[in-house]
């Protein structure tokens, strides 16, 4: 089982989910429910660079988005950046984006190999964000 650490910075309207280890559907659903349970931020960064998603199946991703679609706060549109380290993670993230669309989850997605690119796309100042994340 993997680990997902969630840091919420309301001043930047940002949620950072930093994952590590072998991820399961329970890890993803747990983290998402945590930040979507009340007053979710409009910007979300999933840092999956240290995570292993090789055990996740297509069915797991469908289940994940089905769980999300049932949350009352999911109707708020948000920007979601996903940072991966391998092509497998990139492919899973693209598949995840497609399932979100099929569940009518209102979000814009950006998938990249770079934290800097993700933060830029989310319109977050990297210098200030690094300080917040390290102190958060």
Mean pLDDT: 83
Helix content: 40-55%
Count of separate structural domains: 1
Under CATH, the topology can be stated as Transcription Regulator spoIIAA
Spatial gap, N to C terminus: 24 Å
Spatial strand order of the main sheet: 1-2-3-4-5
* Class derived from helix and strand content: alpha/beta
Number of helices: 5
CATH superfamily descriptor:
STAS domain
Using the CA coordinates, give the radius of gyration: 14 Å
State the CATH class.
Alpha Beta
* Shape designation: globular
List SSEs in N-to-C order: EEHEHEHEHH
CATH architecture: 2-Layer Sandwich
Low-confidence stretches: 132-136
Percent range for β-strand residues: 25-35%
In this structure, how is the largest beta sheet organized?
5 strands, mixed
Strand segment count: 5
Features:
Transcription Regulator spoIIAA, 136 residues, disordered C terminus, 5 strands
Topology:
Layout: E1 3-9, E2 14-22, H1 25-36, E3 43-52, H2 58-69, E4 78-83, H3 87-102, E5 107-112, H4 115-121, H5 126-135
Helix pairs in contact: 1-2, 2-3
How would you characterize the overall build of this protein?
- The structure is a single chain.
- The protein is of the alpha/beta class and 136 residues long.
- The chain has one domain: STAS domain (Transcription Regulator spoIIAA), CATH 3.30.750.
- 42% of the residues lie in helices and 28% in strands.
- It contains five helices and five strands, in the order ββαβαβαβαα.
- A five-stranded mixed beta sheet has the order 1-2-3-4-5, with helices on both faces.
Quick structural gist:
The chain has helices at residues 25-36, 58-69, 87-102, 115-121, 126-135; strands at residues 3-9, 14-22, 43-52, 78-83, 107-112. By secondary structure, the protein is α/β, with parallel strands linked by helices. The protein has one domain: STAS domain (Transcription Regulator spoIIAA, 2-Layer Sandwich), CATH 3.30.750.24.
